[in-house]
Design goal:
With about 200 residues, this protein is α/β, with parallel strands linked by helices. The protein folds into two domains: about 130 residues, 3-Layer(aba) Sandwich (Rossmann fold); about 60 residues, Winged helix-like DNA-binding domain superfamily/Winged helix DNA-binding domain (Arc Repressor Mutant, subunit A), CATH 1.10.10. Helix content is about 55%, strand content about 10%. The protein is built from nine helices and five strands. It has a five-stranded parallel beta sheet, with helices on both faces. Strand 1, helix 1 and strand 2 form a beta-alpha-beta unit. Helix 7 crosses helix 8. The longest helix is centred in the middle third of the chain and has 29 residues. Keywords: DNA-binding, Phosphoprotein, Transcription, Transcription regulation. GO terms for molecular function: DNA binding. This is DNA-binding response regulator. It holds the Pfam family GerE.
Length: about 200
């Protein structure tokens, strides 16, 4: 989902239409307060596959102030931000990029280049969600399962793992089964691919 925040209705409408022409779900907001209200009720899972386009200069809360507020409230996790401005300058763009913005476009911009960057930002958001899911599964492993996991990833066989850890081969088999179950994989190759 692309969240477009711009105080000009014609800009919101044209960007929404442009996004939808590239099969990107999009919604427009006329102010920072409106997008804050919408995102405040979202969960981290909701953020997967989301991006924000923020106009730098808006009445009330500027895009920069909104960006900082979203960041402070933890609402930018997995939500890349692309800034749009008609009055941008190089120092402002550099500052925003240093503070975590995904990109910065000056109006007038090339529609295709903007939407290509939006697609890249959405992919980064999705990848971050997948990475969070893997980290969550890893966190569910016991300390012993982590030890066995490391040795599986090193390509060691059950007998060697048992000898190195001073446990029975049957215990290694049980740990291996639990690891595969918790990580939602069926083979050591899938496990290695997931954690590469």
């Amino acid at each position: 989902m692309l969240h477009i925040v711009d105080d000009e209705e014609i800009i919101r409408d044209s960007l929404t239409w442009l996004a939808r022409s590239r099969n990107i779900a999009a919604i427009g907001y006329e102010s920072g307060a409106a997008v804050l209200a919408a995102l405040a009720h979202a969960t981290g899972i909701d953020a997967e596959g989301e991006c924000l386009l923020l106009d730098v200069r808006m009445p009330g809360t500027s895009g920069v102030a909104l960006f900082n507020e979203l960041k402070t409230k933890g609402l930018l996790h997995r939500r890349p931000v692309i800034f749009l401005t008609g009055h941008g300058d190089v120092p402002m763009a550099v500052d925003m990029l240093k503070n975590g913005a995904f990109d910065f476009f000056e109006k007038p911009f090339n529609d295709n280049q903007l939407m290509d960057r939006v697609l890249e930002a959405l992919e980064v958001s999705r990848a971050g969600g997948a990475e969070d899911a893997v980290q969550s599964r890893l966190a569910a492993l016991s300390a012993r399962e982590r030890e066995v996991l490391d040795l599986i990833l090193a390509g060691k066989m059950n007998k060697v793992i048992a000898d190195e850890l001073g446990i029975s081969m049957r215990t290694v088999e049980v740990h291996r089964a639990h690891i595969f179950d918790k990580m939602n994989v069926k083979t050591a190759v899938e496990l290695a691919r997931l954690l590469k």
